[in-house]
Amino acid sequence: MLAQQLNKNLSSELNDLTLAFVVRTQNHWSPEALERFQSYLRKNDYIRHEADLQDSLAQAQEIFMEDASRLFICTGKSCSKRRKFDISEEGLEKLAHEHNCSILTTKCQGPCNQSPVATLRVGENCQMFSQFETDNDLSAVLKYVKRAANSSNALIQALDAEPFLFNPKQDRRKPSVALKKFEFLVGLFRGEGSYLAGPGTFWKETTGSWEADGRFISLRAGTTYLIEGKQETYNSFVMIGSNADGKIEAWSFGSGGNAESHQLIKENGRICFIDKMERKPGERRLQKVLVPGEQGYEELLEIDPGSGIYEVYSTVKMERA
Ligand code: FES
């Protein structure tokens, strides 16, 4: 009884893995890809004979091609971790009905660094999506799915789903969709800054780069001040990315050894780095504000002396070098 149950579990696991393989190759695999898949299955005792895999493949291909259109949502580890929307069975059934397309979940589809991912098949053609994390993102993807299913064409005009389109052959390192609005920080920038309340200048240089295959942006900055007739440079490092809740945050590290985290808020064309540290009422607060422009961005340091109102302390126009 126990051995029978074990065999049943193994074959259902094998079929799930095989379906994910067919989806990830969009039903067109190379002999090398099949060889790699087969040796993984052998090594992990999912198959003993080649025929086991052939049967499983035939079944997976049938499932892949069933229905005029079908969306396969990846529920592998990385995708499940980053996804913020519900994919309960009832929820998916409802969405499938509303969007005229059957929906199945699969094991890992391959490009985990682009999670969450999904593959849409309409007729013989496929379109992949990546980095759709929130309910709003999912809604944009599902609108695409519905239009594609209704027009029997997987490759339609993307509209709102454009940021989520993913080509597994070309986009393996597609930068973070959520960080697209911070792309203006990537590059080398220089600027001369001034203080609003008094004389004096300072010089700043920043290098912004995509990190970790485009899932974070790092900013390395050096600010030079004239102190008692001598130039002194202070370095800092900021990392911008999504936190576990999918919200964009910044983690900053200063040359004094201080490390702080900030919430990033975009309002009226300004990006405010709000200090997340709890402050007592009446305590002084600082915030950095970035205003993107044509050739770079303006950086303002604002101070709330304790009154609850921020005032500009210094400003520097950073120009792309
Ligand atoms: S877990 Fe979804 S692509 Fe790997």
Using brief descriptors, characterize the structure shown.
single chain, 321 residues, alpha+beta, Glutaredoxin, Lipocalin, 2 domains, ten-stranded antiparallel β-barrel, five-stranded mixed β-sheet, 6 helices, 15 strands, 26% helix, binds FE2/S2 (inorganic) cluster
Secondary structure: helix percent: 25-40%
3D shape: elongated
* Unreliable residue runs: none
Average the pLDDT over all residues and give the rounded result: 90
State the name of the first-level CATH class of the largest domain: Alpha Beta
Order of helices and strands: HHHEHHEEEHEEEEEEEEEEE
- The share of residues in extended strands comes to 35-45%
- CA radius of gyration: 26 Å
Can you tell me about this structure?
By secondary structure, this protein is an alpha+beta fold. The protein has 2 domains: 2-166, Glutaredoxin (3-Layer(aba) Sandwich); 180-320, Lipocalin (Beta Barrel). The protein has 6 helices and 15 strands. It has helices spanning 2-24, 31-43, 50-65, 77-82, 89-98, 135-150; strands spanning 69-74, 102-106, 117-122, 125-130, 165-166, 187-195, 201-211, 216-227, 230-242, 248-254, 259-267, 270-275, 285-292, 296-304, 311-320. A 10-stranded antiparallel barrel has the order 6-7-8-9-10-11-12-13-14-15. A hairpin with a 2-residue loop joins β3 and β4 (125-130). It is elongated, with a radius of gyration of 26 Å. The site of FE2/S2 (inorganic) cluster (FES) has 12 residues, from α4.
